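Onboarding guide, step 5: your first structure request.
Type a short instruction followed by the sequence, for example:

Predict the 3D structure of this protein.
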Amino acid sequence: MLDNCIFVPIFQHKWRILNMKRLLLNIAVLTAFLSGISSLSLAETFTVNGVSFNMVPVSGGTFKMGAQKTSKNEPNYDEDAGEDELPVRDVTLSAFSIAETEVTQELYQAVMGKNPSFHKGAKLPVEQVSWYDCQKFIEKLNALTGQHFRLPTEAEWEYAARGGHRSRHRFKYAGNYSLDAVGWYHENSDKETHPVAQKEPNELGLYDMSGNVWEWCADFGGAYAEGAQVNPKGPADGDNRVCRGGCFPCGAHNCRVSNRMSSPPNYRRGRIGFRIVK
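The system replies with structure tokens like these:
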């Protein structure tokens, strides 16, 4: 009888703790979603040959870039972190704007007059574009809009993926602890790309920063520099260019906000696309 009396309070206590953890997780996800809605209301819309896209403002700030798996008590702990994600360091960025979604096939068609993608669909992200193809697209887009669009630096990409100035949580993926909630990857994609903005956004209101297609960045691939940095642009030279975010056939490991990959700039595959900043 005494054992039962002790068991019931302990069981109830553990149940309350479990429910509290679930509540805190739901609050974190809801906060990210509402922040996304707020960011979208501040977005600037551009229209090119009848196709519109949104640019979301990102306030400048300082964040911890990279990841480590040595100590849970140190910043940016991630049990899946790779050696190329070290060192974790302070990076300070100026304000910029970033596209709400990856460049879609309809936008690429509107600017370039062609669609090189393997998976076809107006709202699907464009793919099978090399880093050089992205530069040609941006040059023509700037001529059509009078703007100064470009590819993001690797630091800008990670800052935005982590939620930028609106970040309140150390999400492993862009906007959530659960990749299924925010991204298309090998477990849920059915081996194909998906229309942009179908999953939940991150705190900035950005979609598909984890999964769907890899996204080209401006930087050469290479090791991170030591120490704090301001507006870093990566190595001065190199053979490859950085890609971020993972893609539809990737494992969850590749879709983490700190994961890095680089490819030859002339590389074209049905799993690499891009998004723009200005």
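Each response can be followed by summary notes, for example: Confidence is low (pLDDT under 50) at residues 1-11, 31-40.
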